[in-house]
Amino acid sequence: MRPLHGLAALASFAAVMAAGPACARNPDPLAFGGALAAGAPIQVDVANHGWADAAVYVLSGGISQRIGFVNGFSEQTFNIPAAYLSDSGDFQLQAHPIGSPGGLTTDRLTIHSGQFIRFTIENQLANSSAGVY
Q1: 61 Cβ partners below 8 Å, 6+ apart?
Q2: Tens digit of each residue's pLDDT (9 = 90 or more) over 86-121
Q3: Is the pTM of this model over 0.85?
Q4: Which of 2, 75, 95, 108 is 20 to 30 Å from 19 at the Cα level?
Q5: Environment class of residue 16 by beta-carbon count within 10 Å: exposed (0-12), middle (13-18) or buried (19+)?
Q6: CA 54 to CA 71: how far, in whole Å?
Q7: Residue 3 and residue 110: Cα distance in Å, rounded?
Q8: How far apart, in whole angstroms, are the C-alpha atoms of residue 4 and residue 7?
């Protein structure tokens, strides 16, 4: 009967180890400075006030990824997948008006849980803006 006690002890140990993570306290992400929840996409509201249609990119960790396209004089909402961001969590947005030789890159942006980005592309690219709300 001794092997049965060992098996019961092993089963009890496995049950306690499996239940451990379920009993752990899940802290509120805002309690620790508001870091963005892991895997949560970032909402970007883009308003294109320019004549030209524009491709919108996210730049993070030296890699540029296209997130969408906004027609001239229109608005579009995009969600940036968390996988597009580097470990530092900061990123930049880029707009490339179609048929224009120039483009626009924002300053570095950092976002916290519950926030979103409003990216406004103006006809004169130097007057464009990005804000975290």
Answers
A1: 85, 86, 87, 88
A2: 888 899 999 999 999 989 999 999 998 899 999 999
A3: no
A4: 2
A5: exposed
A6: 6
A7: 57
A8: 5
